[in-house]
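Checklist before submission:
- one chain only
- standard amino acids only
- sequence pasted in full

Submission:
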Amino acid sequence: MRMRSIKIGLACAMVCVAISTILLPGSVAMNENWKIEDLAWISGDWETTSGPLQIEEHWTRVAGGSMIGMGRTVAKGRTVFFEYLRIESRADGIYYVAHPKARPGTDFKLVRVEGQSATFENLAHDFPKRLIYRKNADGSLTTRVEGDGTEKEKPEEFRLRPMK
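Returned file contents:
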């Protein structure tokens, strides 16, 4: 009798997981329904100051199945980092492509959208493995890069405000 109860419990748990995967907004199973327009809230000009660093990102509006962006970090009056960015629709999903210092691009696939929060992943990449963008209630934009915890780099998070 006890074994039967365990089997019924496991079956119920598997059904609950399957239903939540199908019905919950932003679940991985729904990713075929995402459109690049779901990410339009990222567009704009964003900036923050983090100690001696001035960080900015600029994103175009959605057009032609893509958004084009660029990021720059300035310290002591000099550009110390820059990257070209794009978010694009492809047949197999939506991708964030980063070209740090104009190097060849690295693809991060969109794996989650929940309201005005989006997560892109490339678990095969060294660091970061995950990029998270979130629009906050106060109009600011939080960007976060993180790995899986095995790398020496630590997660970084920046809160950007709209540029004036």
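Reviewer check: The chain is about 15% helix and 45% strand.
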